[in-house]
Amino acid sequence: MLHDPNRVFVFDTTLRDGEQVPGCQLSTPEKIEIAKALELLGVDVIEAGFPISSPGDFQSVVELSKAVTNPIICALTRANKGDIDSAAAALKYAKHPRIHTGIGASDMHIKYKFNSTREQILERAVDAVKYAKKFVEDIEFYAEDAGRADNEFLAQMVEAVIAAGATVVNIPDTNGYCLPEQYGAKILYLKENVKNIDQAIISVHCHNDLGLATANTVAGIVNGARQIECTINGIGERAGNTALEEVAMILKTHKALNLHTNINSKHFTEISNMVSRMMRMPVQPNKAIIGKNAFAHSSGIHQDGFLKHRENYEIMNPEDVGLIEAGIILTARSGRHALKHHLERLGYDNEKLNLDDVYQRFLVLADEKKEISDDDLLFLMSDGDESAYKNGYKLSLLHVICGDNESPTANIKLQYNGEEKEATATGNGPVNATVKAITSVIGKNIELKEFTIQAMHGGSDDVSKVNMRVSFEGKSYQGYGFSTDIVKASANAYLDAINKFL
Ligand SMILES: CC(=O)SCCNC(=O)CCNC(=O)[C@H](O)C(C)(C)COP(=O)(O)OP(=O)(O)OC[C@H]1O[C@@H](n2cnc3c(N)ncnc32)[C@H](O)[C@@H]1OP(=O)(O)O
Ligand SMILES: CC(C)C(=O)C(=O)O
Ligand SMILES: [Mg+2]
């Protein structure tokens, strides 16, 4: 029945199992936005909702059915006529509709949820599939709590629902109970003991109560399942469902498994952010694949190894999950290689720097702050009291006169190679006068091309950050300066740019 035996179908239930999470409920337009992003990602099936549960959920399934073209749109039901009628009505506009019906399969559920017997439950399962089949061709059956169900009874149930018309049989580990070996063995048991198993696709739907959802899903497909049920960011009931991005990247990374999906992993970062924002569910920083730190290297030994050869510390390429830049995070655990990398990135020529001196000052700042940002680094580099440059110009005096009825005048002193040079200039404002005075000392044809001043946080007592771009002999150089005095910040920014080419 499958054209490609190694193709794994991706069934996304972010909008159904994911949306069951308290606080994650979405409006219909939000669901449509996510559904369109899922379509772009390349999922095969979107579980759009549980239509009987509320008029709002019913309407969402209707609207999603209209909005989405390629993926199958699936609606969940219990094993009863009312739920199935409602799902069939909600799927009226779906180009590829699927009804997902089912009932508990474990003795625990049969006895304590339904107060019933295996025989009666089997009958209800078969009846539900036959009834759903009257409306749509594509019927998925879920054997709830299959993870704890007796394998022999489960096989009997699966065989009966396939005979009744189920095209997909879902074997959920509803409570996240199984070990990967147990779950894999369960799938293999069904492959080997259900006579008509070739007439349906086996689906795996794993929960993460013991942190095993992804491992169990992989065990399931290695043993013959060909559909995975998962959510973006692993959201879902209790500890969540299998994270779509994790399984997709496992299959991409472990080529020897010889299993593949239709997923374009480059959309992961974007869709993860979208789901997290809309559902108000922050992603933990250490979350595999899409967590903030998933591709961030923060300790010196790792950073050094990574910079020498990326694969020393990366088994996946961050670009494959939609991250533009590799993350070398500067902290007090970073070494000189990482610091040098960032200084180069910010336009500094390491040949001209006292790297050891900068590193010592960096460590003092990094001990005070948890993480060193670009702005922190620029601040450190333009610190007027400590020259970062081996032979650079340093401002040793700045005296400015300005105000009403005054011609703005700057008197400056620059130190260079142990020598001190002084100049005075006037301008149309204090910064212009200072820039002119500095240029006269340097004695070169330097053009100021860009000049921006920004308060770092706000308030009149704030530190100003000045960014200047200068042009010298046809090339551009960027400089930064920081100070509570905007004229001093400007002078430092100008000198920072000049020191880069002198
Ligand atoms: C494993 C899963 O994730 S299943 C999906 C879980 N998602 C949800 O439950 C969200 C949507 N649910 C709802 O909106 C509501 O629970 C409804 C509309 C489905 C039902 O609401 P109510 O009629 O008030 O019933 P309530 O939720 O209190 O109880 C569930 C009933 O469904 C029965 N039931 C549970 N699962 C199934 C099933 N698969 N097939 C048939 N009946 C079932 C229960 O035995 C119980 O029936 P009882 O009243 O005869 O004891
Ligand atoms: C409805 C079913 C598939 C489910 O979510 C579960 O068993 O966890
Ligand atoms: Mg579930």
Automatic annotation (TrEMBL):
SUPFAM superfamilies: 2-isopropylmalate synthase LeuA, allosteric (dimerisation) domain, Aldolase. Keywords: Acyltransferase, Amino-acid biosynthesis, Branched-chain amino acid biosynthesis, Cytoplasm, Leucine biosynthesis, Manganese, Metal-binding, Transferase. One of its GO terms (molecular function) is 2-isopropylmalate synthase activity. PROSITE patterns: AIPM_HOMOCIT_SYNTH_1, AIPM_HOMOCIT_SYNTH_2, PYR_CT. It catalyses: 3-methyl-2-oxobutanoate + acetyl-CoA + H2O = (2S)-2-isopropylmalate + CoA + H(+). CDD domains: DRE_TIM_IPMS. Its EC number is 2.3.3.13. Mn(2+) binds at D17, H205, H207, N241. The keyword Cytoplasm applies. InterPro entries: 2-IPM_HCS-like, 2-isopropylmalate_synth_dimer, AIPM/Hcit_synth_CS, Aldolase_TIM, LeuA/HCS_post-cat, LeuA_allosteric_dom_sf, LeuA_bact_synth, PYR_CT. Its cofactor is Mn(2+). One of its GO terms (cellular component) is cytoplasm. Residues 8-269 form the Pyruvate carboxyltransferase domain. GO terms for biological process: L-leucine biosynthetic process. Residues 394-502 are annotated as: Regulatory domain. The keyword Metal-binding applies. Pathway: Amino-acid biosynthesis; L-leucine biosynthesis; L-leucine from 3-methyl-2-oxobutanoate: step 1/4. Belongs to the alpha-IPM synthase/homocitrate synthase family. LeuA type 1 subfamily. PANTHER family: 2-ISOPROPYLMALATE SYNTHASE 1, CHLOROPLASTIC-RELATED, HOMOCITRATE SYNTHASE-RELATED. Catalyzes the condensation of the acetyl group of acetyl-CoA with 3-methyl-2-oxobutanoate (2-ketoisovalerate) to form 3-carboxy-3-hydroxy-4-methylpentanoate (2-isopropylmalate). Homodimer. This is 2-isopropylmalate synthase.
